[in-house]
Description:
Number of helices: 4
Number of domains: 2
Order of helices and strands: HEEEEEEEHEHEEEEEEEEHE
Structural class: mainly beta
Strand order of the largest sheet: 10-13-14-15-16-17
Shape: rod-shaped
Number of strands: 17
Amino acid sequence: MKQxxxxxxxxxxxxxxxxxxxxxxxxxxxxxxxxxxxIRNGKPDSSxxxxxxxxxxxxxxxxxxxxxQGFNVDSNEYKITAIxxxxxxxxxxxxxxxxxxxxxxxxxxxxxxxxxxxxTKIEDIPKLTIGILYLPFRIRxxxxxxxxxxxxxxxxxxxxxxGHCYIQIGSQIGSTILTNSNTKKEISEDINMTTLxxxxxxxxxxxxxxxxxxxxxxxxxxxxxxEWKYHKKPWFTLGIGYDIFKLSTKKVSN
Length: 254
């Protein structure tokens, strides 16, 4: 069991590190260009976007958002298109020039190195979301590593930290069985006791499938009367779900 726990921790850590270090973009990514970047000239209706007084406007201005439409391995270039612009009356920045005729309905070709150095991916998922988390069992590392099945459900907040990874924290209401083997005080019969649990963990999400490693501790009422040996003691567990946390796509615009 300890080896399995270490493997799961290593898996999540590896996924997180690679997600942070990978600066490449894939088809469908929404990106923001931070600085002016050069584009390759080509056909007037596709590769460059503005021709005024016989001069070609052959760069993209920083500060706007684009969608990656593909990558050409032979030329080592990304093909990108501009995200739709708001009208001037809707644009809070009150820009004096309507950029829509310059950018829309155009395809731009940018070298791989230049785009990756001057653009960042916009995560199309909310930073913070809330969902219902159900954990059907606990693994308690005290003593002989007890395995306990129990009913626990509650609200959990998930915060996106990068890539496909989320930090989660929340609370749950559940139940546990008090017996003479897990209490210091002798009881005449087993007792079904309500528990309050504080939960934290890390979740990995891919294509709406969600995998989590969680830890926490439980509290019961009237602990003095029973001296339950797991009161405020740590436990951990695994969670698997599908689209439990609604990580919906955000609509973006320039």
